[in-house]
Design a protein that fits this description.
The protein contains one helix and no strands. It is mainly α. The relative contact order is 0.10.
Length: about 35
């Protein structure tokens, strides 16, 4: 069904955005630690 396809694509996009957000936070903490 089309619903399944869109559901999976939406879940994939959410996962990707969470991943990038987590990476941004991780690099931010690393940068702050190095700045100190």
């Amino acid at each position: 069904t089309p619903d399944h396809g869109t559901g999976f694509s939406i879940a994939g996009k959410n996962l990707a955005s969470y991943k990038s957000m987590f990476n941004a936070i991780k690099y931010n903490l690393l940068f702050e630690r190095c700045a100190l």
